[in-house]
Amino acid sequence: MSEILTLGEPIVTFTSTDLNAGLVDSINYYKFLGGAELNVMIGASRLGHSTEYISQVGADPLGQFTIKEISKYHVGNHYIATDDNNWTAFQLKELVDQGDPTTFNFRRQSAAAHFDKSNIDHIDFSGVKMAHLSGIFPAISMQAREAFRYFAEQLITRGIQTTFDPNLRPALWESQAVMIETINDLAKYGEIVLPGINEGEILMGSRDPEKIADFYLANSDRTQTVVVKLGPEGAYVKNKSGDSYTVKGFHVEKVVDTVGAGDGFALGLITALIEGLPMAKAVERGNAVGALQVQTTGDNDGYPTSDQLTQYLASEQKED
Questions:
Q1: Cα–Cα nearest to 193, from 265, 123, 261
Q2: Which residues sit opposite 130 in a β-bridge?
Q3: How far apart are CA 107 and CA 270, in angstroms?
Q4: Which of 156, 240, 246, 289 lies 20 to 30 A from 20 at CA?
Q5: Helix (H) or strand (E) holding 248
Q6: pLDDT by residue for the chain (320 residues), tens digit each?
Q7: Which Pfam families match (predicted)?
Q8: Catalytic residue among 165, 257, 263, 299
Q9: Model pTM?
Q10: Is there a contact between 223 and 156 (Cβ–Cβ < 8 Å)?
Q11: Largest separation between any pair of C-alpha atoms in the chain
């Protein structure tokens, strides 16, 4: 079985090739595969770790494309079910030369939104070292939300370490109030919780990293460490024993596209912990992968191989 598991919805993304034209005026698009949870698996696989992605797609060309692409990225696709009655989710995405691109999702009533929790019963959990949980999948439907909880409970029963990234997507939720309440409840499943500072402000009302960390540490007996992503400044870490510190970020001359940076942080941290590195070094790797990703236009194009990551860290240390 694979070292890392996740449950998510793959998104076939049609990205404009018309720079800064906006979605209305863009004419030309190219197709690629994305999705936050899948990004984490792709990046972890690129760093040499075995991964398995759990999901459901439609019996349509986009579903076939999804399964084919996941295999091409060397991510396990053994637990991707096919739904004959609902379509594979997709989105449109702007091409911008800096900052956050606008996206528009076609996800309501998708195949993944009809994922049956009974699919979880067929998973082989043996050998799994960590599982990544994200707040996106439970946002797409009540059925997905139920499956997410069932999956998380199976992980806990088996003693598998979990990370939880809130990954807020307000457009997918019934309301902001439901989003806040549900995400904070689901965060209880995470042994390591990974909120961004902007997410902290929405979810618990503060931009103070320590207050955000304290909130999630007190939120669940299971949560042992909270890592608050600070963007270019790096990340703030606090654990249950009260130890806290900040790991500085990496300087980036020009941010091309921030999509995938948070997922890059998660995969960097997860893979480092699996390799036995201490938390501070794991957070440093997360910062490094996130910094590399924001310098590319794709959702996961900037994720490095092990050699590329080693070279990047060495070059940054020389500059210091």
A1: 265
A2: 4, 161
A3: 28
A4: 289
A5: strand 244-248
A6: 799 999 999 999 999 999 999 999 999 999 999 899 999 999 999 999 999 999 999 999 999 999 999 999 999 999 999 999 999 999 999 988 877 788 899 999 999 999 999 999 999 999 999 999 999 999 999 999 999 999 999 999 999 999 999 999 999 999 999 999 999 999 999 999 999 999 999 999 999 999 999 999 999 999 999 999 999 899 999 999 999 999 999 887 777 667 778 899 999 999 999 999 999 999 999 999 999 887 776 678 889 999 999 998 988 775 55
A7: PfkB (PF00294)
A8: 263
A9: 0.93
A10: no
A11: 56
**Element (DSSP H or E) covering residue 55:** strand 51-58
Q: What are the CB-based long-range contacts (under 8 Å, 24+) for 153-156?
A: 153/189, 154/120, 154/123, 154/125, 155/5, 155/125, 155/131, 155/189, 156/189, 156/222
Which structure tokens are listed for 278?
Answer: 């201490």
Asked if 39 and 260 touch (Cβ cutoff 8 Å), the reply is yes
Dihedral angle computed from the Cα positions of residues 55, 59, 60 and 61, in that order, rounded to the nearest 10 degrees: 70
Which two structure tokens, joined as six digits, stand for 243? 């130890």
Structure tokens at 46: 């690129």
100 is catalytic: no
Q: How many CB atoms lie within 10 A of CB 286?
A: 28
State the Cα–Cα distance between residues 162 and 269, nearest whole angstrom: 12
The DSSP bridge partners found for residue 53 are 6
In the numeric block, which tokens belong to residue 204?
């618990």
Residue closest to 216 by CA, chosen among 246, 237, 230, 245: 237
Sole residue written with tokens 């799994």: 128
